[in-house]
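Interim report to the steering committee. The following record documents the input for N-acetylmuramoyl-L-alanine amidase (668 residues).
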Amino acid sequence: MKILFAKISREKENIESLTAYCAPQSKEWFMRRLLAIPLVVVLPLSGLNVAHAEDAGDRQRAFSAAAAEFGVPENVLLGVSYLESRWDAHAGQPSGDAGFGPMHLTDAAAFTGSNHHSAGAEDARGDEGRPLPVTAVPSLSPADVPPSLRTMERAAELTGVSRERLRSDAAANIRGGAALLADYQKSLGAPLSDDPAEWYGAVAKYSGAGEQEAARFFADEVFSTIKAGVERTTDDGHLVRLPAVPGLRKIERWLEKLKLRPTRTDGVECPASISCEWIPAAYQQLPDDDYGHYDLADRPASQKIDYIVIHDMEGYFLPSIGLNQDPNYGASWQYSIRSSDGHVAQHIKAEDIGWQAGNWYINSKSIGIEHEGFLAQGGTWFTEAMYRSSARLVRYLAQRFDVPLDRAHILGHDNVPGTIPSTVQGMHEDPGPFWDWAHYFQLLGAPLHRSGGPRSGAVMIKPDFATNKPYFYGCDGENPEAACPPLGAGTVWLRTEPRDDAPLVKDIGKHPTGDSLHSVYDHSARASTGQRFAVADRQGDWTAIWYLGQKAWFHNPADAPTAVPSKGLLVTPKPGKATVPVYGRAYPEQEAYPADVPYQTVTPLQYTFSAGERYTLAGTADTEYYRAVTFDENDHQVIRGRTKYLQIQFGHRVMFVKADDVRVVSSG
């Protein structure tokens, strides 16, 4: 007991020395906040001892201690952290814009890279009628990194803690975030008040936004989170609570003091509930009858929009937008979303066609959304601010264009099929296994849930993202063979037999002569959250699905299921057919083409769909080809055929079959 009181006495001396230079009201507030903390929570103010609170298994205590130390209302600190990371530590790994830890302290100077469209062999336009070369993209240099992506440097100055520790130690990271908020509050001339309303401007500044509406969106989301309250267990097992404050106010005059620029709206196609501006993609005529770098159209009058494609940039926001403004660059997309605050830039109107998915059939019937970040190398998680903004945008677009809110129509780039056998291997794999589809669909207002009984003939993949941590390698670009740290993921491995040491199933399109890999960049033997598959067999804790023409087993124990029953329709070859072809696009038959338009060959992919196999049916697919190879839109036309196609979940990517080749059955 003497030791305890001696320790408290020493801390009292430390506090008095720290508050000696404070204004009287600030000193009084600090002491009042500290004395309000229970005796067992009184902590030394050094970074080392705050980390001990984390070591003891109490992240809540780390938030309390950091809030008291820097004079930040605890609910403000919790609210900001929730909108960045949902209080997760992410095993010390960076986010999509090189943010670390619960407070998303950014250290992008150490993580530079190029946009993913420069990698691999994919032609982003994906049309043999007008093939494009792959365009090289320069890497981002540290000098190009904006201050909003370097907040860790300032946090290190304010706390005296190394950047390495701010990355890896969650409690130290929380201290760094609290120090930044207090620093921002002082820079505005705002009081270190215990009233959260006074912190509206500092919260807005924490977003790093240069646009007033983006900063406002971030602050409003933080304040709405505080107002509603939230409780959650983090990715590493800490229960954290943010009590609701129903009567929460906000003093918006502090936002005006930031003197941020207004956004250029110009008729953007976005919901009013997000921050959105118009930054147009380049569209101009180029030498040699060329043009760039998207196609004019009249959707949905000319073609229905059936898909929304989710990408990550494999790069940062501003450099990626720069690519979309270059008419010589061989890729384009409709929207970009910033990681730190969820700010949206629209580049191409929804009626026009971006060159984004590597498959012209999908491009002509979809909208592409790029998210700042990386699949794995450079970042392994995405911020809550970006998830929220993206979900609101997708829901708005889905309602406007009648796009079903399911995983057969809200696609990852990694779910888009190759067009013909030669393009399958080069298709991109973003956003990858660390995109939280289950959380995303909750935010969309369309949560993924079970349907049907336990013996249903189909399942939906749905592991618990936080606790499902499959083995991957390839997250470290400097050591690509090293195992990734254990991270939550929305995917399951598929094996040839119902045992953990069985080989992975093969994908003859991705690996024509070799085996599937455990690489984070190889989806060949993986099924992803929300995807529906026909059940092929069950054995103990294992379930087999039909996948790329073979039985594929995944671990699905009753006490920790990785899939749920899913009632729906299936397709199987018609009687008498040993196999039926599968396609990467639903193009018309040759007879449908006018004489002046070259026929686009209907070529099956290299996979085999055999008698006895079943695959889930997503619906019918319009038989169309949009001929657009000139700058002048008057030369563009839609060719429609009579062949009927159905969309199925054949592997990790969706594919198509001809309706005349299959019969439709119930999953039971």
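The mean pLDDT is 89. The committee is asked to note this result when reviewing the revised timeline.
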